[in-house]
Amino acid sequence: MFVVNGGWVPGAGRPGRLVLWAEDSSQPPTTSSRARTRPHPFAAEATALVGALGAAAAGFTAGSSVVRVPGTSRGPQPSPETGIEQATRSIKLTDWTVPSLSLAGPAAMDALTRLADPEPDGPWTAGASLRYLTLLAGYAYDLARRGRMLPQLVVEDRIPAGRWRPVLTGADAVTFRDFATGMPPVTRAVDSAEGHPAGRTTRDALDALLDGAARSLLPERLLAGPRPGPKGRLNDRWVSALTAEDPALPGASEPEVRELRQALDGWMRSANEANGPIRVSFRLIEPEPGEDDWLLEFALQSADDPSLYLPAADLWAGEGFPGLPRRADEVLLAGLGRANRLFPVLHTALLEQRPDGMTLTTGEAYDFLRQVAPLLQAAGFGVQLPSWAGRKGVGLKLTTRTKTKTSSSRAAAESGFGLQQLVEFRLDLVIGDGVVNAEELAELARLKVPLVRVRGQWVELDDRQLKAALKAVSRRREGELTAAEVLQQVVDGGDEDLPLVEVDADGALGDLISGQAAERLTPMPTPDGFQGVLRPYQERGLSWLSFLSRLGLGGILADDMGLGKTAQTLSLLLTERAEGRRTLLVCPMSLVSNWQKEAARFAPGLRVYVHHGGTRLRGSEFDAAVAEADLVLTTYGTALRDLAALRTVTWSRLVCDEAQAIKNSGTRQSQAVRAIPAGTRLALTGTPVENHLAELWSIMDFCNPGLLGPAKRFRRRFQEPIEVNQDADATAALKRATGPFVLRRLKTDKSIISDLPEKNEMKVWCSLTPEQATLYQAVVEDMMAEIESTEGIQRRGTVLAAMMKLKQACNHPAHLLKDGSRLPGRSGKLARLEELADEIIDDGDKALIFTQYAEWGSLLQPYLAAHTDRPVLWLHGGLSKDRRDALVERFQNDDEPMLFLLSLKAAGTGLNLTAANHVVHFDRWWNPAVEDQATDRAFRIGQSRNVQVRKFICTGTLEEKIDQMIERKKALASSVVGTGEDWITDLNTDQLRELFSLDPAAVR
Question: What is the distance between the alpha carbons of residues 448 and 463, in angstroms, rounded to a whole number?
Answer without folding.
Answer: 8
